[in-house]
Design goal:
Blueprint lengths: L1 H11 L7 H18 L1 H7 L11 E7 L10 H10 L2 E7 L5 H9 L4 E3 L3 H7 L3 H4 L17 H5 L8 E3 L1
Helix pairs in contact: 1-2, 2-4, 4-5
Length: 164
């Protein structure tokens, strides 16, 4: 855990730059490692007798900026999240963030745009935000991200963006 936090702090403290996609990728790697190392406990906590976990992995992004210094491009991070069934929920505090919204759509997540403090606080009272299992099931699988064009094709699909 200490290494994970130190890596994220290092990614965040690049003298005014934001390595948002790298931070999302690091969080996903950490989640997978944790789930793998704790699969027995996770399968017990989800009442699963086959030794496999029903634990849902989710990266929760709260940001006030745009990525401007990641080494990994957004599409590769989205592709990684998709291939590992990791949900991405994003909360851009500085207004809409089209690339993050596209990544969330690709990864079966939510994009909730916070426009003021009161709305932001009410966010965490919503059952669907807190509990992924409370969300409506998607009728179709998100488009598979294979390159930057496929990720960018999701930018115009604003159905997932919800103003709180």
């Amino acid at each position: 855990m200490k290494n994970f936090i130190m890596n994220l702090l290092d990614l965040m403290l690049h003298k005014g730059s934001t390595s948002l996609y790298d931070a999302i990728y690091e969080a996903a790697l950490y989640l997978q490692k944790y789930a793998s190392e704790n699969s027995t406990q996770l399968s017990k906590s989800t009442n699963n007798d086959d030794g496999l976990s029903d634990c849902i992995l989710r990266v929760f992004v709260l940001t006030d900026g745009e990525d401007n210094s990641s080494k990994k491009p957004a599409w590769q991070v989205a592709q990684y999240l998709q291939s590992n069934n990791i949900i991405l929920d994003v909360f851009p505090l500085a207004g809409r963030n089209d690339k993050l919204q596209a990544m969330a759509s690709a990864c079966s997540g939510l994009t909730l745009v916070v426009t003021n403090e009161e709305q932001g606080l009410s966010l965490f009272e919503r059952e669907a935000v807190l509990h992924v299992q409370s969300r409506e099931k998607q009728e179709t699988k998100p488009i598979q991200v294979i390159d930057s064009k496929t990720l960018d094709s999701l930018i115009d699909k604003r159905v997932e963006v919800q103003d709180v």
